[in-house]
Amino acid sequence: MKKVLLLPFVLLSMNVVMATVIKIKVVDFQFKAKTVNALVGDTIQWIWKGGIHTTTSVTIPAGATAWNAPMDSAHRKFNYKLRVAGVYKYQCTFHFTVMKGTINVTTALAAGLNSFAAKDDDAKALLNWKTVSSKDVAYFSVQRSTDGDNFREINRVMPSSSNTYHFSDNGATGKYVYYQVKIVDTKGNTQLSDIQMLTRNVKNSPLVLSLSPNPISSPGHLMLQFNADKDGSMLVKLYAQNGRFIKEAEMMASKGLNNGHFHMGDLTPGAYYITCTLGTVTEKHTVIVK
Question: Which of 62, 120, 198, 223 has its C-alpha lying 20 to 30 A from 243's C-alpha?
């Protein structure tokens, strides 16, 4: 009798331990991280950091529950339990053109995934992962991304009895590189690891990677994609071509690739410039208003 009663308790305890809370920041017109991988049973927690936004489901797997939650100073957190495998697409209702997110949900396979880590080794990225077993594993798909959203397979690793795996990638470019491993079993089922970001030692890497649109209409919203070596904020100042200061704004930054949103305001057509300062680095960029 004791053994029969104990088994469900043990199984329930294991499920509770295995479930994970995955946190996504809602800040400065972006969901950070924009794309996350999760397992059925995990919980997504959106955490408000600034602005007036929502997290609102757009497309979700059949059988999943839609959601629409405000994210502001009165609604600082929102939790959503993942009960169905598939791809979840969501957005901010107010800023749907720039604030979008993706949650990739898979079911845990028998092989399991104990750990996954990536580290920089000069010109190479060293990836290491461990599984509980090699049961029914067909192969591991090693995948790389430059933005943390769009991944492509760079290699396949075959299963081994050691359950410990290594892969060295010397084809990465850019300052920040993202990796994930997909386990594929003999029946075609898959499980995704979490996404690991690697900071590479790249000399003379720019702070601001892109400004768009540029030229920009007035009034308009300038989108900035920029790098950050650590969490903090980037100060953006707008000037007329003669050096007259017009306005400024702070953009919160998380380590890695960031997207910021700057309200240019109602300006007369012409050439302007912005200065972007993050830590000890300042860059100057020209913006054309048409």
Answer: 223
Largest CA distance in the chain: 85
CATH number for the domain that contains residue 261: 2.60.40.1930
Residue 122: which residues within 8 A CB-CB, separation 6 or more? 201
Backbone angles phi, psi at 210, to 5 degrees: -160, 150
Domain annotation covers residue 8: no
Q: Give the residue-averaged pLDDT of 6-29.
A: 63
Q: Give the whole-angstrom CA distance, residue 199 versus residue 151.
A: 17
Q: Are residues 38 and 98 in the same domain?
A: yes
Whether the model pTM is above 0.85: no
The model's pLDDT over 66-109, given as tens digits with 9 standing for 90+, comes to 999 999 999 999 999 999 999 999 999 999 888 999 999 999 99
Rg of the chain in Å (alpha carbons):
22
Backbone angles phi, psi at 12, to 5 degrees: -65, -40
Please, are residues 93 and 110 in contact by the beta-carbon 8 Å criterion? no
Counted domains in the chain: 3
Find the domain containing 193 and state its range.
Answer: 108-203
What is the domain-level CATH number for residue 187? 2.60.40.10
8 strand-pairing partners: none
Rounded Cα gap, residues 41 and 55, in angstroms: 20
